[in-house]
Amino acid sequence: MAPRKQREIFAATLRLLADKGYDGLTVEGVAETSGVNKTTIYRWWPSKAALLAAALVEADMLDFDVPDTGSLRGDLVALVEALGVLLTEPPGRDVAVAALGAAVHHPEIDARRFFADRLARERVVFERAVRRGELPESTDPMLVMDLLAGAMWTRAVFRGLPLGKDFAAEAVAAVLDGVS
Amino acid sequence: MAPRKQREIFAATLRLLADKGYDGLTVEGVAETSGVNKTTIYRWWPSKAALLAAALVEADMLDFDVPDTGSLRGDLVALVEALGVLLTEPPGRDVAVAALGAAVHHPEIDARRFFADRLARERVVFERAVRRGELPESTDPMLVMDLLAGAMWTRAVFRGLPLGKDFAAEAVAAVLDGVS
Amino acid sequence: MAPRKQREIFAATLRLLADKGYDGLTVEGVAETSGVNKTTIYRWWPSKAALLAAALVEADMLDFDVPDTGSLRGDLVALVEALGVLLTEPPGRDVAVAALGAAVHHPEIDARRFFADRLARERVVFERAVRRGELPESTDPMLVMDLLAGAMWTRAVFRGLPLGKDFAAEAVAAVLDGVS
Amino acid sequence: MAPRKQREIFAATLRLLADKGYDGLTVEGVAETSGVNKTTIYRWWPSKAALLAAALVEADMLDFDVPDTGSLRGDLVALVEALGVLLTEPPGRDVAVAALGAAVHHPEIDARRFFADRLARERVVFERAVRRGELPESTDPMLVMDLLAGAMWTRAVFRGLPLGKDFAAEAVAAVLDGVS
DNA sequence: GAGTAATCGAGACGGTACGTCGTGTCTTGAT
DNA sequence: ATCAAGACACGACGTACCGTCTCGATTACTC
């Protein structure tokens, strides 16, 4: 089951999250923005965090396509660049960043849904690479993705630095070829 | 200038942050815990976020020593393992995670103080490695650290997965040697 | 017309009224207690007050028999004592008191149904007394009953005082004989 | 101690009580009407009932002077007539009636404060009468007042009947002289 | 050691939002 | 075609903190 105006509620949720951050996101605000009564929101989601979790899961805002460029390196660069765009340009940036902050101390937001589950989709990139012989079968795709995605987050969000034009390529090169 | 009970205030701040997360951290709670009046806190810090920022800067909770094992690989593994411990064991874990969540949408917390500035200290590891000939001079230490630290955050915090015994070593190997 | 479970609805209404007072009496509670849907109650009675009014009219909880002791004094003492019991012992006490509170600011409850209309039944006491010559024909029965019943209410409910063993007799004596 | 705007708060409370009855009296409404924040009201009174109780105690709306006409009969008639006015003319009427309804099922409103405590003031009427020899010393003033006041309430409020021009005099006569 | 700032405790206050309960209306799906 | 089930908008509840604001009462530094 779902509330009649779920669409509007989720839209309002993400909009307010992006606009005012997790703290500024209030159930009351969502209710007003989405033209729904506060009670209705509480009927369906037990807390602000749960509401946000549902909105994020449903949102396609954070999706990006899995590329198929013909080479592992190309695929990974494309993936990482897409993630870079996501993390630096509004409204994705604000939502992603706020969602992280929220997920980090609200287990019910279950960060896995936004970060970990993506791996399932990214995995095909690695399978293709193994089939092409670009990668030993023993390689751990999750490790590779954690290194790359982690670097993007660290650079763009924690350090608050702009992602240079070639950052994605350099990161991918480091992981594929090693730095030493 | 500083309030007379700054120590107690900061201690209470970090304690409450670790105990109840960023949301559960309230100025009122800090005041009560530290035996100070709410007014006093507002006299010195304009907001909860600013208070937390000050407390974190002062705290040594997040510090770890820069290792010197004789090899780059050893140093990096030690660094990453230390970060792993920090991110997975209380109270550091809770503080670090909460601090991230807070910093992420409160510019005044200036994430650089907790994440970026560490690089200055880590840099010596790379300088020693270059001197030893383990690393080409052209290597970008920040990229390496972003990859490694990012992977730890992603794995431990975003994915909420335990860090296996050898995760640090594997991550360092991937970055130093490449995966392909 | 009447809803199929009218009995249960009225029973639940009076039960909840006695248990939790007028404020604590809710349509929702009545619905649940009587195993009926809220909608059903609203279909038949426009408001909580109207429902209560209907329940009270139907209830025999507040009835008492008109005594016939052979003397006016005896009849009146018996009447007043019965009223005293009604006003001081549960569940009648709670229902009567709550009904008063409700009636007082809900015209639709029509207090006359519970208080005034009784006069019709009490009147025979006075008719018998006139016939016996105990009372001049000009005496106003309503005045007498208002004095006596009013004293009981004032003492038991407004003042919240226990009704002494002889209170009924004293009140009747005062009205019949005068105090001066 | 007392809130800074106690006057306004009490005035608003009684005004709203008279206007909308006990049910329609809301803390939120009082707050708005009196230009005070809801929190402030809850800071000082734990509930609507307690607020109303305080407002009623402070209110002079329900006061009337104790007459001194020279005779017991005259004093009582004056007293009862004043009560009659109180119970039939706004705003006293609405307040008194609503207060009764409220007091009846809210012990903290302590009906004694509005009904019983008045006896202390009325007692002088009886003392003077005893001194004048109009009344045996053994007469119970409370019984007399309960009979008279009770009759007024019953007639005016419970029965909802108008109080005739001579009702007070008749009631006093009945009690002083007896009806038989 | 007194005088004068700075600092503090106490706590009332206007606010915003919380999460809950009950109201009375309206829609819908099963019978 | 009726009616239970229950979603809904609404208003109020009582609570928690927010950040601001007087007030006096302590400090503690300076002369």
UniProtKB/TrEMBL annotation, chains A, B, C, D:
It comes from the Bacteria. GO terms for molecular function: DNA-binding transcription factor activity; transcription cis-regulatory region binding. Keywords: DNA-binding, Transcription, Transcription regulation. It holds the Pfam family TetR_N. Residues 26-45 bind DNA. The keyword DNA-binding applies. PROSITE patterns: HTH_TETR_2. Residues 3-63 form the HTH tetR-type domain. The keyword Transcription regulation applies. InterPro entries: Homeodomain-like_sf, HTH-type_TetR-like_transc_reg, HTH_TetR, Tet_transcr_reg_TetR-rel_C_sf, TetR_C. PANTHER family: HTH-TYPE TRANSCRIPTIONAL REGULATOR RUTR, TETR-FAMILY TRANSCRIPTIONAL REGULATOR. This is AcrR family transcriptional regulator.
